[in-house]
């Protein structure tokens, strides 16, 4: 069974729709500005009440404080990112230091073992040089005395 909506649009349909969308999105004569960039439009000239002007001043003060707070938050975020980068760098350096320290520890341990072995051999040679002549002289005296 064929699909119910098997219509394939023409290229003229697609291009025509694209032009209409482009015109509606990029229309420079549009009275609608971005609310979040510019804020609401209010004609304050009609509002001459001192309470409203005082309230407007307070709102402007709050907006100024909020802009400063947002700026501080952004600066803080940048500092936190820098701190995170430094922390990551420090962590990688500490891992490298730990591995090098372990390697150095093993190397020094082997050098220490070699040194002890050499010292033991030297002491054995010195004792052999001292004891062997004594044993030989004692054995000659015992052989010559019978």
How would you portray this structure in words?
By secondary structure, the protein is mainly α. The longest helix is centred in the middle third of the chain and has 95 residues. Pfam families: Synaptobrevin (PF00957). InterPro entries: Synaptobrevin-like, V_SNARE_CC, VAMP4. This is VAMP4-like protein.
Task: Give the gist of this structure.
By secondary structure, this protein is mostly helical. The protein has helices spanning 11-25, 35-38, 50-144. The chain contains three helices and no strands.
Describe the protein's topology.
Layout: H1 11-25, H2 35-38, H3 50-144
Domain V-SNARE coiled-coil homology: 51-111
Organism: Mya arenaria
Transmembrane segments: 117-136
User: Largest sheet, if any?
Assistant: none
What is the subunit organization of this protein? single chain
Uncertain spans, ≥5 residues at pLDDT below 50?
none
Q: What proportion of the residues form beta strands (DSSP E)? A: under 5%
Overall structural class, as computed from helix and strand content, comes to mainly alpha
* Elements, N to C (H/E): HHH
- DSSP strand tally: 0
Mean pLDDT: 81
Write down the overall geometry. Answer: rod-shaped
Number of helices: 3
The radius of gyration is 46 Å
Kindly state the percentage of residues in helix: over 70%
Distance between the termini: 129 Å
């Amino acid at each position: 069974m064929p699909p119910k909506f098997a219509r394939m649009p023409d290229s003229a349909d697609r291009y025509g729709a694209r032009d209409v969308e482009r015109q509606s999105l990029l229309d420079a004569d549009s009275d609608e500005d971005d609310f979040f960039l510019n804020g609401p439009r209010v004609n304050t000239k009609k509002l001459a009440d001192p309470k409203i002007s005082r309230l407007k001043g307070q709102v402007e003060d709050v907006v100024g404080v909020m802009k400063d707070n947002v700026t501080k938050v952004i600066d803080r975020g940048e500092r936190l990112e820098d701190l995170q980068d430094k922390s990551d760098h420090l962590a990688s350096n500490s891992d490298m230091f730990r591995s090098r320290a372990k390697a150095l520890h093993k190397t020094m341990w082997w050098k220490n073992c070699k040194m002890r072995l050499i010292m033991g051999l030297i002491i054995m040679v010195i004792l052999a040089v001292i004891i062997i002549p004594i044993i030989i002289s004692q054995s000659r005296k015992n052989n010559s005395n019978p």
